[in-house]
Specification:
Shape: rod-shaped
Radius of gyration: 28 Å
Order of helices and strands: HHHHEE
Distance between the termini: 24 Å
Helix content: 55-70%
Strand order of the largest sheet: 1-2
Structural class: alpha+beta
Number of strands: 2
Strand content: 5-15%
């Protein structure tokens, strides 16, 4: 494979490769946890004033605690991964990694990559200099838009 056509990736600026930004999801989860805390206080107040019985109180608290646990698990995961994702990928890293990994791929994996990410390969054949087999020369590679 001719790697010269992948040199065009060097023209990408590092900022054009977006890093994962979880701040919006973190904010939404934090707000929902706050709402659960308020609801928990309301449930406690209803129980203390005998507006709901113990079984209803226990059921509501169990549901709110389960949801809060799910949210806190997701929040902890997002907070731990967010700092690691910033500026992790640059154009140079992607191109160099691609070149290293292409040599490791078998033919089936290469075919899967081409089918998934490449829209069209423009090439032409050159007449053989010796022998009967033509040589294919890649002129351009057009990638799918994502």
């Amino acid at each position: 494979m001719q790697y010269e056509k992948f040199e065009k990736f060097n023209d990408l600026e590092s900022d054009s490769i977006s890093s994962i930004d979880n701040s919006a999801e973190i904010e939404v989860i934090s707000v929902e946890i706050g709402q659960i805390e308020k609801k928990h206080e309301e449930i406690m107040s209803l129980f203390v004033t005998n507006r709901i019985d113990f079984n209803a109180y226990q059921g509501m608290v169990k549901l709110s605690n389960q949801r809060r646990s799910e949210l806190e698990t997701r929040l902890n995961f997002l907070q731990k991964t967010a700092p690691n994702m910033v500026n992790k990928y640059t154009a140079e890293n992607i191109v160099s990694n691609f070149r290293e990994q292409w040599a490791v791929l078998d033919n089936e994996q290469r075919q899967q990559f081409v089918q998934k990410f490449i829209k069209r390969i423009v090439m032409h054949g050159e007449t053989p200099k010796a022998g009967r087999i033509n040589e294919a020369v890649i002129d351009d590679i057009l990638f799918n838009d994502f």
